[in-house]
Amino acid sequence: MLKSLRKQSPMNHKALRLLTAAAATAVAGTSLLLSAPSATAANAPYADCPGWALCLYQDGGGAGSKVILTPPPTGSPSQMVYLIGKHFLNGQAADNQTSSWLNNSQCGIEFYDDPNGDLHPSLIDSAPSWNWGLKHDYSYGTPQAYLNDRVSSLRFYNC
Ligand SMILES: [Ca+2]
């Protein structure tokens, strides 16, 4: 056994040198990735929500990706929004994933737990109309943490 190892040792050293070089390259690549600031970390809380929109954020405190919802025009009848089939800007499904929101619309909003909140009343949260910039945060440890990842549909009203 020892004899055969010694015989192969020049080959093993070469392989080891190649592996070491590959590992060094991999480590260098990793540290480059780690040192680059991520887009998420650079975003301010509740960032980039248009001045007329309701934005649902994937993470608490207005962090993470978001869904930008356009309210109906002023004076319109109320309008339901169903989150099944909708996605955050990062492509992930939005149903039962809202952890905070910002209402820049002038509409009032009712948030429902049920996917069809108009058919199965399950009101869990609301925003009064004419209250631009209202935020609710469902982060762990906040008073509304029990609402985290529950919103499945909502209704714009009094727009
Ligand atoms: Ca739900």
Structural class per helix/strand content? alpha+beta
Low-pLDDT sequence parts: 1-7, 13-40
Which class of the largest domain in CATH terms? Mainly Beta
Strand content: 15-25%
| Number of strand elements | 8
What overall form do the CA principal axes indicate? globular
**Average pLDDT over all residues:** 84
Give, in spatial order, the strands making up the sheet with the most strands.
Answer: 2-1-4-7
Kindly report the name of the CATH homologous superfamily of the largest domain: Crystallins
CATH architecture of the largest domain: Sandwich
CATH topology of the largest domain: Gamma-B Crystallin, domain 1
Described by strand count, sense and barrel closure, the largest sheet is: 4 strands, antiparallel
* Cofactors, ions and other ligands in the entry: calcium ion
Distance between the termini: 83 Å
Helix content: 10-25%
Number of H- or I-type helical stretches: 2
Instruction: Report the C-alpha radius of gyration, rounded.
Output: 25 Å
**How many structural domains?**
2
Order of helices and strands: HHEEEEEEEE
Signal peptide: 1-41
Organism: Streptomyces tendae
Pfam families: Inhibitor_I36
Protein name: Peptidase inhibitor family I36 protein
List the helices and strands and how they pair.
Layout: H1 2-35, H2 39-42, E1 54-57, E2 66-69, E3 79-82, E4 100-103, E5 108-112, E6 123-127, E7 134-137, E8 153-157
Antiparallel strand pairs: 1-2, 1-4, 3-8, 4-7, 5-6, 5-8
Bound molecules: calcium ion.
Calcium ion binds next to loops.
